[in-house]
Structures are given as C-alpha cells and as structure tokens.
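Need residues for this backbone.
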C-alpha cells in the first residue's frame, strides 16, 4: 500500500523528488606529516547533499562539500575512529566508521596546569579590571589584532550597571584535569548567559541590545589545545588556542567555541575569540581566579605634595626651553615600536611656544619619506624625578588617527630596556574615541596588550583645557582628570616605579593604538598650558 501511494504521488506531482538513501560512501584522508596533527577528510557518496563528521573528542562538523580539515591535538602518535555520515533528501543517511593515525607535536602542559591548578580551578570575569570585555578588528594587520580596546571596552564592573547584562558577573568557569594531560570545562551560568545581540535568535530573544537570557550550559565539555594561527604578533600571544566541545562558550555568546589564550598566569587569563557571524571582529575576555567584589578595590591614600620642584609655564615665545626639553627625531625603530606613521622633527611647524602655550602639531605632508610630521619632546637628562604629583594642563588634537600622549619613561631605559624600565602613561587619547582618555602602566608581565589600563570619559578633550595628573608614591600611582580620581594602581618594591622617570609629550599618527588615519585629516595640535611637578616635604 505504501509503495502504491508513493508511486501515485510521483505521477500526480512531478515536483516531488524521490527520496534515496546515499550509497557508495567513500572517505579518503590526507594526513599531514609536519607534526601539526592536521587531517583533511574527503567524503563522497551517491545521492548525498551534505556530510557530517563525528570525532572522538566530542566535536562534530557539517560539510556540504564533503571536505573538512580537523586538527588532532593529543601529543604523540595516536589512532582515532571517526564516524562519517552522508545525508540525502529528507534527512535519510548512511554512515561509515574510519580510522586515522596521526602525529601531533603540540602540547602545552603549563597551560593545563595554570588553567586547572593541577586539579580543578574556578575562573570568573575580571570585573574589577578595565577592558575585561573589549572588541577590536580581526584582519591581516598584526599591529591591530591584539588590542582589545580598539573599538570598544568596558570599565570596571560596567556590566553591573546595565540591567540587561548583570547576569554576566554570576558566571563561573571551571577547568579540570585528572591526569595532567586531559582537560575539561564546565560553565555554571546560574541560569542565564550574556548574549551578543546578533545571536538573540538562538534563545528567541527580542532585545535589540546585548542581553542576558535564560540558557542551559550544564554538562562537562572536553577541551582540546592547538597551536594558534591568528594574525597576532608572536610577542603578544602565548601561541595556544583552546576549543570547547558541544558548542561550549565562555561567558559571552558570540557563536564560537574557539578561544585563543593570549596570556595566562595563575590568577589572570586574557582570551581572544572571533565572532562567528562576523569574522572581522575579535572579542577579548579577561578572567581571574579570584572573584572580584565591587567596592572592594584599592582606596586612595591621602598624600600631600606642597613643594613645586619644577614647572614649565611656556611663557616665552619661540622654541621650547632647552633647559627643560630635548627631542626624539625621526621615526625610530619600527615606528617607535608601535608602527607609527609620523616623522618627528624639531621644526617650528611642528613644535613652538606661542601665546602662553606649547603647541605640538601633527600634520599631513610628505617629509623624509613619510606622510606625516609631528614632534616628541622629552625632559630626559634635564628634569627627572622619583615620586610626586605631576600636573599637565592640556587641550588635545582631534581627528581619527591622532594619538597624543603625556607620559613618563624610566631614566634607566638604555641599560634596562622597555618594559623593564617601566612606563607611566598619564594620558593617552585616540581620535576615533573622541570622548575617552586612558591612563596605563607598562612593566614586565603587564606590557603591550597586558598593560594595566583604565579609561574615563571627558566630553571636551579637544575644545577645552583639562588638567591631567598623576600622584606617584612608593605604594600607589593615582590618575586624575580635573582632580577627579579614576584609576588607582598599587605600587611596591617589586615594580619598576621606584626610581627616576622623565616626561614625554608627543602627538603620534596611526600606529598600533592610533589606527587608520582619516583621509580628510590635514593637521591638528596638542596645546599644553603648563607642566608642573610637586613633591612631599
């Protein structure tokens, strides 16, 4: 009877296709011999419309073409069984079990130890850190592909102030091992997870913004480690990527289960992940093994700095006072280590004192083989100090691609190269984030992408003068804008911030932090009303 009905339907409606089970399923395997663990599978079958591969680590892959490359990461020479399924119209399928023997040279036992503590370890959002969730570009430019605040970033406990996002800080991420070689992951989201708005449909969400939704993340997932293949400079990453089985994710749902470990210590982890539906976006997540408590951070110490020990009021027109300032000239090595685009000069076109202010002007022009010129002043060898209050009243340039900075560098940098010498950035600004300024500290273990940085909003940075200040003692470095405290760093004898530093004032163009320069940019200046240093009795 069923056969009769099927024939009848086919006669009456020729648009219906006959459902045929895929036959003659064949699978070939191309095993690389370079120790990478990569194997390319090619499946073919009659009447198949797509293929599915199921691997022994719990991961699966769907490949309509029948071609899929898998990296096997268990160290050594190992044999694996893979189930390959060919699907036809209507979901009918046939399957085949194949075996492959492949060698992988990759292992990262230190990462397993740090992730798990040798057993089981719980991680949390590093909510007390600035930039604990940020986003930047993912492209072919290694100078951009590590900075998590390139497009946007969070201030400490920022998600706690957004009603739709408060669930994030309830998350617990547990990594475990039983042998020191295996690695598993559990995600306790206390019933709800934070979703990128473009994935709201996964949970039938309606909000146009990133929001928390009820979501089941229960269960243990296997974790595999593999070499990183991202376009991130080698010195800015660990070189290890972890993949979570069964659609596992860490904290923020962006449609991926693969996370690159940029840095990892016993208490801090910086992850980079590419958004599943937008390969041009890289998200950055900072985790900590010590659960942060809002309001429990460091409190500002009270210090008095009554003695003005040095100042430049910029009252005399002409070149800057040679008793206070000298210059860095040219483009340095690799654009001053930041791939900057400008050529620094000491010409009055780029640096001059007039009308009671110092003007450092960045401008577009062809000069010495570069497309931009600017100036970088420093007090090196002239005015160097340990501790005190540093005040700079300034108005910043504007234009996408500008990167003004007021900062200090350890005076021993020639014998103690950066980051060993230490760097204190009192103020940094980039034109693409017009209303935000940063204060940052670079030192061993926390430099470049791992620097300790915090941002604050200043609405009129380019139209009005503001006072940028740092108070620096043996125990703290505090950062202010117009006497409003926004960043506290705990200093101690293990840090390089207990010796002489000198001041640097500059306007860079482009580079790792400045980014692309707007095609319409012509010129813009940072104006400095005064620089003052106060110290204690």
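Answer:
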């Amino acid at each position: 009877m069923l056969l009769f009905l099927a024939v009848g339907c086919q006669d009456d409606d020729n648009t219906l296709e006959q459902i045929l089970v895929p036959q003659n399923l064949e699978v070939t395997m191309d095993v690389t011999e370079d120790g990478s663990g990569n194997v390319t599978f090619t499946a073919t079958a009659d009447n198949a419309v797509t293929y599915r591969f199921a691997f022994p680590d719990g991961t699966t892959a769907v490949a309509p073409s029948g071609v899929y490359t898998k990296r096997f990461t268990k160290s050594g020479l190992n044999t694996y069984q893979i189930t390959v399924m060919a699907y036809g119209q209507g979901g009918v399928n046939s399957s085949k079990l194949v075996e492959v023997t492949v060698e992988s040279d990759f292992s990262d036992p230190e990462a397993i130890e740090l992730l798990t503590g040798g057993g089981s370890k719980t991680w949390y959002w590093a909510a007390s850190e600035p930039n604990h969730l940020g986003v930047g570009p993912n492209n072919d430019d290694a100078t951009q592909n590590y900075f998590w605040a390139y497009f946007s970033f969070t201030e400490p406990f920022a998600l706690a102030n957004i009603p739709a996002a408060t669930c994030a800080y309830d998350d617990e991420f547990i990594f475990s091992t039983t042998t020191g070689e295996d690695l598993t992951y559990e995600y306790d989201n206390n019933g709800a997870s934070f979703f990128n708005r473009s994935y709201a449909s996964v949970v039938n969400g309606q909000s146009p913004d990133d929001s928390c939704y009820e979501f089941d993340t229960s269960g243990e997932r296997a974790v595999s480690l593999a070499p990183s293949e991202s376009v991130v400079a080698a010195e800015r990453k660990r070189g290890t990527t972890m993949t979570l089985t069964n659609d596992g994710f860490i904290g923020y749902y962006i449609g991926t289960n693969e996370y690159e470990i940029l840095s990892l210590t016993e208490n801090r982890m910086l992850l980079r992940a590419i958004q599943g539906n937008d390969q041009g976006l890289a998200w950055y997540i900072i985790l900590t093994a010590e659960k942060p408590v809002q309001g429990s951070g460091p409190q500002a110490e009270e210090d008095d700095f009554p003695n003005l020990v040095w100042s430049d009021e910029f009252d005399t027109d002409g070149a800057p006072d040679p008793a206070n300032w000298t210059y860095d000239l040219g483009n340095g090595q690799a654009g001053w280590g930041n791939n900057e685009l400008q050529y620094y000069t000491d010409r009055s076109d780029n640096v001059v004192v007039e009308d009671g202010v110092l003007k450092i002007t960045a401008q577009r022009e062809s000069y010495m083989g570069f497309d931009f010129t600017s100036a970088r002043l420093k007090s090196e060898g002239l005015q160097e100090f340990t501790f005190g209050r540093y005040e700079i009243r300034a108005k910043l340039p504007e234009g996408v691609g500008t990167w003004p900075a007021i900062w200090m560098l350890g005076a021993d940098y020639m014998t103690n190269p950066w980051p060993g010498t230490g760097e204190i950035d009192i103020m940094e600004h980039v034109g693409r984030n017009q209303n935000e300024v940063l204060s940052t500290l670079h030192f061993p273990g926390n430099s470049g992408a791992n620097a300790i940085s915090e941002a604050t909003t200043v609405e009129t940075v380019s139209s009005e003068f503001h006072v940028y200040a740092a108070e620096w003692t043996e125990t703290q470095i505090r950062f202010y804008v117009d006497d409003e405290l926004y960043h506290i760093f705990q200093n101690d004898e293990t840090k390089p911030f207990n010796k002489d530093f000198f001041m640097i004032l500059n306007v860079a163009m482009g580079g790792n932090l400045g980014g692309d320069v707007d095609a319409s940019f012509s010129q813009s200046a940072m104006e400095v009303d005064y620089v003052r240093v106060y110290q204690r009795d």
